[in-house]
Amino acid sequence: MRRSTSIGTHDEVCRRLTNNSRSPPVASGHRDLVLFRAYGFPTFTPRMTAVVARAPTRLDFGGGWTDVPPYSEEEGGFVCNIAIARYATVRLRPSLDGESAIDTRRATDSALAEAAVRRSGVSGATIEIASDFPLGAGLGGSSAAGVAVKGALATWRGDSIDRAALAEQSRAIEVQDLGVPGGRQDHYAAAFGGFNLFEFNEHGV
Hints:
Elements: H1 10-19, E1 37-41, E2 50-62, H2 71-74, E3 77-94, E4 101-104, H3 107-120, E5 125-131, H4 141-157, H5 163-177, H6 185-192, E6 195-200
Parallel strand pairs: 4-5
Antiparallel strand pairs: 1-2, 2-3, 3-5, 3-6
Helix pairs in contact: 3-4, 4-5, 4-6, 5-6
């Protein structure tokens, strides 16, 4: 598949995402902002030429699996985690032939992106997903990819982004569309970034 070069390299895009942020930084070894970002590339026409979104993975300090139903709903859960500078990055741009296409190295990411596109109603777009973390590392990588894809699609549609809703929509894709049982902490860490203390109960987060 031909790749667009108009939006720059991965590192250049990430620098733009960081420089355009007004959020307070979370300290990391890379002096980066460990937060969710979505950036649209405008043209002289009313439509964007591309959208780039990235979402961080996380380290879990305590409370893991207490966010997973039915335990979180029956007993309540509490999780402490922090987002780290390892990201799922999504690039969305118009396809050349008007057909939607998914470009990713991981089958799970492809299924996730296809489900997200179906839910969003977006057509005629090419979605590329790249990650800088190893598969199966236990960092919540699939949730980061889900949040990045949903964020990119929302930006493309011109929708406002509510981070809690973004996390819930990403989880709904995994649980309802892909049949992957799981909790909420990974999705919320990817959507909110930073250092987090999440409490879970029958009402949610």
